[in-house]
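User: Show me a protein chain along with its predicted structure.
Assistant: Here is one chain, sequence first, then structure tokens.
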Amino acid sequence: MYTITMDIIDGHTIRKALPYPKLIDALSHAFCSELTVPMRHHHDMVNPGQRETTLLLMPAWESGGKAGVKIVTVAPEHAPSIKGIYLLMDLATGTPELMMDAPVLTARRTAAASALAASHLAPTHASTLLMVGTGALSLELIQAHCAVRPISEVMVWGREHKKASSVAEQARQLGLEACAVSHLEAACQKAQIISVATLSKEPLIKGRWLQSGQHLDLVGAYRPDMREADDDVIRRCQLFVDTRQGALKETGDLVIPLAQGLIVPESIEADLFDLCRGQHPGRTDAQQTTLFKSVGHALEDLAAAKLVASTVQPSNHHE
């Protein structure tokens, strides 16, 4: 009789195992490697009287190495909105080895992917960051961007100023100069990096607000009917994505402009595979206005999970 015994790695342990410089480097190596990553399964489950709950199944594996699958739900009206598990397995034997807290793993790898893109696309001397959104990802994105650029000023904007103030206070406790802002337009015009992580269905960032040389990091809008940036943003920016496979299908920030004929698939200059492998130079001009759109990729989860597995002592981390 086969019995599964495995360790469960909690969120606190995952955070300690994934410092951003190390995680960003692991993602960079993963995007240069040969991993198998099928298109993720995306199922919208009807929830009468509320927005749908989304089920995501995200597998990835390396030949002769590890395999993993993330099982998460996204319930926008119930905080925390993301819940689930990540299962790491030995590919050769099929043996499950570790189970991990998926929301923390997802938050860390998502922020690291944005920072990895910023390391290729954001102004080298960018010192001002605007964080738009106050959810679980906001503080993670702030820390990740600070790991790749010399950020000395952080602004936080949210629909509820109280929540923005709370995120800014948490950032200050980490030793960062941070403050909550009330006027999104003015903050956008000032920031050199604008990171947006919201559940908005209507564009928040307007193209007329952007300045030459800025870098825009869009992390929310994970469904085709959600948007964080208007058409003018898409028109003005050089466009980059984590993966073409996912970004051109799943996010309204690109799907809607594609359907309208504003852009074509070839408008995407590069993805993280191209940038990490040196097949695209990234930012080459201080006046370029760049946009990175992230939708998430199972390769990132597997790279992060392997890093956790290589760092922790499994037998001590049962929940």
